[in-house]
Amino acid sequence: MLAPLVAPPVEHLTPHDLVTYFRCPHEMELVHAVHAQRVTGTLGPVRTPLDVIPLHHSPLFSPPLGEISVNEGRLDLFDDGDRLIYLDPGEDDIPMLFPPERMQIDPKFTNGQSTLTDPEWGFAGRPDLVVRRQDGVLFPVEYKETHLFGGYHQAHGRLFDTIQAIAECRLVHVTFGRRPAYGIVLYGDESGGGEHEGWVQIPYGDAEERWLKVAMDQVRQDRTRAPVPALRTCGSCEPNEEGLCRFAAARYEGPHHHQAFLATRRP
Ligand code: SF4
Known about the structure:
- This protein has 267 residues and is an alpha+beta fold.
- The chain has helices at residues 15-23, 25-40, 158-176, 206-221, 231-234, 238-241, 257-263; strands at residues 69-72, 83-87, 116-118, 123-125, 129-132, 138-144, 182-187, 198-203.
- It has seven helices and eight strands, in the order ααββββββαββαααα.
- The chain has a six-stranded mixed β-sheet, with helices on one face.
- A hairpin with a 4-residue loop joins strand 3 and strand 4 (123-125).
- It starts with 14 loop residues before the first helix and ends with a helix.
- The structure holds iron/sulfur cluster (SF4).
- Iron/sulfur cluster is lined by residues 24, 26-27, 30, 227-229, 233-234, 237, 239-240, 245, 247-248.
């Protein structure tokens, strides 16, 4: 008698995985292997073949960028009816944008639960904040404390932030049952005293949702997870700090190497 066919488990993904894959698929693979090591004590399997040919750029195509709204200065979140309904408990560097009377954490997240999950797509993650406006509109906010604003299009890292915002919109949609029309990335420039603050509103519609689904399918189907060596990304790649990458184009320089690199290009 034939044994029943069992479908292989769908690879679990997070917004951070998509961002990492977009930078370098091999980095994502190594991050997963290191995570498995923390849990089991043994470095997890790495699917990248030893004779892989490194790529010049990520195989993942860019998300739609048509209607992004770029704004300098402070993000105003203080209409009377605005409420904070989710705050990532694992982040301790988020500025206090809401006074206590405007915090109304959703009951789903008052019992120790902190992760937004999407069982249908095998997807989970934690935005920094989720805001509900008076008219019921919801949107996630991702806070980048160290990033300089200084013009949206000058900075290479913004595409990564766009991917993260789109992914978090999907998680907010599934968790709260209402699709956000946009996600916000807030650039705090804390080290610059807020001199270069700004925020970007990234739309989330059918095109962005489709992009996300196709991107996740592509990541899961990629059996190679090829490296994309580049000075600016290898310099801040955490598996590179551990000496795990055979393809690195630069020595590890620290987690803020990428921001330092951008600062040298500041207008
Ligand atoms: S060191 Fe560079 S090539 Fe290697 S995994 Fe990191 S980003 Fe990719």
